[in-house]
């Protein structure tokens, strides 16, 4: 940053809002232009390791494709004879092969700063399909923010967990699932401890939540097409249905940004000074 000696001396007296914001793009819009770009920013399967989680799909690389430049497509395919997944002390039957990608980097809301995630999604709402664009804790659990998840019900859900039983959630009717919808999620440090989370769909604010003690904690970013589990079962059974309805193509707009706006400002409302693009 350019700063002459006089500015440097004056800075401690200047208000926080006079500080220039700093912003850095963490995942660029070109991330889905080709497989090399995808693999620069994302790993296959879950970013904490493993290819199963809390539903009926086993993830692999073959079900994740850059179908056309700028579009990531994850396809779920029915399968038989797979060993079950183990989650929460239970066996979960695996009835599908599908895909997940996890960002290679971790994302942390710093004190006085924030993160923004945006992407366009075309997501199935068929019963038994459970696509999601979400953040979850690197250490322990929660935090978890479901920036968008579709649980096979015709709705889209936005969730922020304080504990497994105390969460903020909003389910919204999801019209035209055959089209792309813009999702945007903004995380802002609220008070040095808690993080305010705002969810937008197609430019409209859908919900504002507060995540307890989220500031300073690293997140994984995951995009996956889980099956069954919270989206109900049985899921769809024919291959054709999978190709057409259980793919989630996503366009090139996955963008993660980090913004920080000077030091913590002692309760001063810096929301209006912060942000964006
Ligand atoms: C989660 O915790 C934050 C911070 O204490 C609080 O503002 C919010 O209301 C809590 N959410 C729920 C659902 O209780």
From TrEMBL:
GO terms for molecular function: hydrolase activity, hydrolyzing O-glycosyl compounds. SUPFAM superfamilies: Concanavalin A-like lectins/glucanases (SSF49899). GO terms for biological process: carbohydrate metabolic process. Keywords: Hydrolase, Signal. Gene3D superfamilies: 2.60.120.200. Residues 14-254 form the GH16 domain. It comes from the Eukaryota. Residues 1-18 form the signal peptide. InterPro entries: Beta-glucanase-like, ConA-like_dom_sf. This is Glycoside hydrolase family 16 protein. It comes from Aaosphaeria arxii CBS 175.79.
């Amino acid at each position: 940053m350019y700063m002459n000696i006089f500015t440097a001396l004056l800075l401690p007296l200047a208000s926080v809002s006079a500080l220039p914001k700093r912003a850095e793009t963490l995942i660029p819009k070109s991330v889905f232009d080709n497989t090399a770009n995808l693999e620069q920013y994302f790993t296959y399967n879950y970013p904490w390791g493993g290819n199963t989680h809390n539903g009926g799909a086993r993830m692999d690389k073959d079900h994740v494709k850059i179908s056309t430049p700028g579009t990531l497509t994850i396809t779920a395919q029915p399968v038989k004879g797979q060993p079950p997944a183990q989650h929460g002390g239970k066996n979960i039957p695996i009835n599908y092969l599908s895909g997940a990608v996890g960002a290679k980097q971790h994302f942390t809301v710093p004190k006085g700063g924030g993160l923004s995630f945006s992407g366009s999604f075309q997501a199935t709402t068929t019963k038994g399909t459970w696509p999601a664009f979400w953040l979850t804790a690197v250490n322990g659990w929660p935090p978890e923010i479901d920036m968008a998840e579709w649980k096979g019900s015709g709705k889209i859900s936005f969730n922020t967990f304080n504990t497994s039983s105390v969460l903020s959630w909003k389910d919204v009717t999801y019209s035209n699932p055959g089209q792309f919808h813009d999702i945007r999620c903004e995380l802002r440090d609220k008070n040095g401890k808690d993080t305010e989370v705002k969810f937008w769909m197609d430019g409209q604010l859908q919900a504002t939540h507060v995540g307890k003690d989220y500031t300073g904690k690293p997140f994984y970013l995951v995009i996956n097409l889980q099956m069954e589990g919270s989206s109900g079962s049985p899921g769809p059974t024919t291959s054709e249905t999978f190709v057409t309805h259980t793919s989630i193509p996503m366009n090139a707009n996955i963008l993660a940004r980090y913004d920080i706006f000077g030091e913590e400002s002692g309760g001063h409302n810096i929301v209006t000074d912060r942000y964006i693009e």
